[in-house]
UniProtKB/TrEMBL annotation:
Class of this enzyme: transferase
InterPro entries assigned to the protein according to its UniProt record, in alphabetical order: CheY-like_superfamily (IPR011006), HATPase_C_sf (IPR036890), HATPase_dom (IPR003594), His_kinase_dom (IPR005467), Sig_transdc_His_kin-like_C (IPR004358), Sig_transdc_resp-reg_receiver (IPR001789)
Coiled-coil region: none
Domain of life of the organism encoding this protein: Bacteria
UniProt KW keywords: Kinase, Phosphoprotein, Transferase
Domain Histidine kinase, chain residue ranges per copy: 1-90
Keyword Chaperone assigned: no
Species of origin: Stutzerimonas stutzeri (Pseudomonas stutzeri)
Protein name stated in the entry: histidine kinase
Catalytically driven reaction(s): ATP + protein L-histidine = ADP + protein N-phospho-L-histidine
List of residues that carry 4-aspartylphosphate: D163
Length: 233
């Protein structure tokens, strides 16, 4: 429904007109501990193989990117209520005053192209969505062989973001092949293992590693920093 909000009435939203959407269930509900973590990437209460823990974190990201807010209220044994608030789009205002582009070091500087290689479709989609929202061009592959075909046919690739534990060719082997095509290519490895578990010679200059589960802001900053370092070399 359409609703008029006052400053600070809902989260950090500014005063104005919003569309609100409320979803309620009568399920088992969530404890305060679980509720505090529901927006964290990869957090799930489901058994292994039955959930990625990415659903609500993606909804949160989309909502915030649109200038909105999401709230969740839940009580064990009673159920859960999810409320979304999205700003009303005024076409006349948009024509009269085009929205200024988001500035800051995390945004793509020149629409750089990032190749994302991840065999888990949900994780791959999440990473791609984050990068696209920041202004990057993206290419995607589910395994090393598909990534190599892209590297051979793409006009340009500015960075490789790859899972380490890919089926078949692993991420480190893929990085070696990618750097034959693009010498000095920045490579960010995603891994479910601690960084300390990697051998001392695993990372070469221009390579870095981020451990799952990772914060989406941390991912964005790491990509931005590595591309800026490449430009300064």
């Amino acid at each position: 429904r359409n609703t008029e909000l006052r400053q600070g009435e809902v989260g950090d939203l500014a005063a104005g007109r919003y569309v609100s959407l409320c979803l309620t269930d009568t399920g088992c509900g969530m404890s305060a501990k679980v509720l505090a973590s529901v927006f964290e990437p990869f957090f799930t209460t489901k058994p292994i193989g039955q959930g990625t823990g990415l659903g609500l974190s993606m909804v949160y990201g989309f909502t915030r990117q649109a200038g909105g807010h999401i709230q969740i209220a839940s009580e064990p044994g009673v159920g859960t209520q999810v409320s979304l608030y999205l700003p009303v789009f005024d076409e006349q205002d948009a024509v009269a005053a085009p929205a200024a582009e988001t500035e800051g070091p995390l945004r793509a500087q020149q629409g750089e192209t990032v190749l994302v290689v991840e065999d888990d479709p949900a994780v791959r989609l999440l990473v791609i969505d984050v990068l696209q929202m920041l202004g990057y061009q993206t290419l995607e592959a589910a395994d090393g062989n598909a990534a190599i075909r892209i590297l051979e046919s793409a006009t340009a690739v500015d960075m490789l973001v790859t899972d380490v534990g890919l089926p078949g060719m692993n991420g480190r082997q893929l990085a070696d092949v990618a750097r034959q095509q693009y010498p000095g290519l920045p490579v960010l490895f995603m891994t479910g293992y601690a960084r300390q578990a990697a051998s001392p010679d695993f990372l070469e200059p221009g390579m870095d590693m981020i451990s799952k589960p990772f914060n989406l802001d941390a991912l964005a900053k790491r990509v931005s920093d590595m591309l800026m370092e490449r430009d300064q070399r």
